[in-house]
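[audit] Reproducing an earlier prediction to check determinism. Same input, same settings, fresh worker. If the tokens differ from the archived copy the diff job will pick it up downstream; this log only records the rerun itself.
[audit] input (208 residues):
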Amino acid sequence: MGRPARVSPDRILAAAALEFAAHGFAGARVDRIARRARVNKAMLYYHFKSKQRLYRVLLRQMFTQAVQPLQVIASGSVTPAEKIDRAIGALAAFLEQHPFFPAIMLREVAEGGAHLDKETLTALAAVPRTVGGIVQEGVAAGAFRQVHPIFAYFSMLAPMVFFLAGAPIRKELSHQHVIDMTALSAAEFVSHLQETTRRSLARDAGEV
């Protein structure tokens, strides 16, 4: 019984991330995950019990990793506008470091969150709650206009996910000479999003 415990669950999770991104929950196959992780299926089930549990553990881990830098930013002493800039940068960095994640989440959104249990949803909720808290802080300080903090969060997240997840499509558009997008870098997009978000949140000079 000691042998399976010596295999890192992280290796299985890394293999599962690629499989779920490529095929979604329903299309993902445990045998392919096991082969990619270089373990047998018995060892995979030893650690995760089922494909569903493997999927949920992966998502909880991702949400936890995503929110940690945001919580550090939220607790800082800089202005709310600077916190928003840093939060956008942190989210973009996380998505770039985990390129499989947007594909998994877009598939899950398309399926109506069918595979998310309460524990996974709780982990997910920490991300909009933290970013929304920064927005609320800016509204309370008079730096931001009155805006729903969760609407503001989705206004930041959605374009970021679609831009980063759409990289293969942009590459093909350029390759087929449909439209040249070769000069569009992720760093420039993040800078653009930071600027447009600051402008959208800023309170007008005459606003009471």
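[audit] rerun output stored. Observation attached for the diff report: The mean pLDDT is 92.
[audit] end
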